[in-house]
Amino acid sequence: MRSLVDHRVLLLTLVLATPLACSKEKAVEGLEAVDVESYWTVRGKLEDDTYIRPIVRFRLLNKGATAVDFIQTMAVFRRLSAPEESWGSAFEYSLSGDPLAPGGRSRLITLRSDSYYFSKQEPERMFENDKWEQVTVEVFVKVGPSSWRPAAKMEVPRQIGAPGLEKFLTPEEQSAEPDAEPPARS
Question: Which tops the pLDDT comparison, 151 or 180?
Fold first, then answer.
């Protein structure tokens, strides 16, 4: 008799859970990664070695008809010499406590690889090294108990810092006198 009750409880659990799992699969299908960009960042310096690691950042757009919560994101970084093997990864459990409304965009999500390259060279010169291996990144999303779904894939450009950062690194020419004429352009 006990076995029959256990089977009924299991069957009831499966019947009730199936619509939830199906709705989560539909919810994850409505998510799209937008504003995706990837680059390298200086991880730090240890003795004479400089460490750099790849980063991907993006927002999620909810193209579905219902609000979505319990969103998880994951990035898998791979070297082109071993495209089937994970070289590094990053994971975020949940975007926020608030559901992502239909048509809404998430905050900026930044996922940093747990693997890195290191060299005695300056970070920008590492890309010129004969042993350099190009890296790709693939972003996945998941909603609750849904399956992981690919959301974006790209090659990590050979660039230190986020795109557009260079304009902040080069100071604008400024005149020593506040009322002086601007320099002539040729």
Answer: 151
Tell me the residue range of the domain where 132 lies.
31-158
- Residue 123 CA: distances (Å) to CA of 77, 128, 148: 19, 10, 34
Pairing assessment for the beta strands 135-143 and 71-79 based on DSSP bridges: antiparallel
**Tens-digit pLDDT profile for residues 21-80:** 445 667 788 899 999 999 999 877 778 888 999 999 999 999 999 999 889 999 999 999
In a domain, 82, yes or no: yes
* pTM of the predicted model as reported, rounded to 2 decimal places: 0.73
Looking up residue 90, the CATH number of its domain turns out to be 2.60.40.10
Q: How many domains does the chain have?
A: 1
- Segment (H or E) for 20: helix 2-29
Smallest CA-to-CA distance from 73 within 34, 115, 104, 109 is with 109
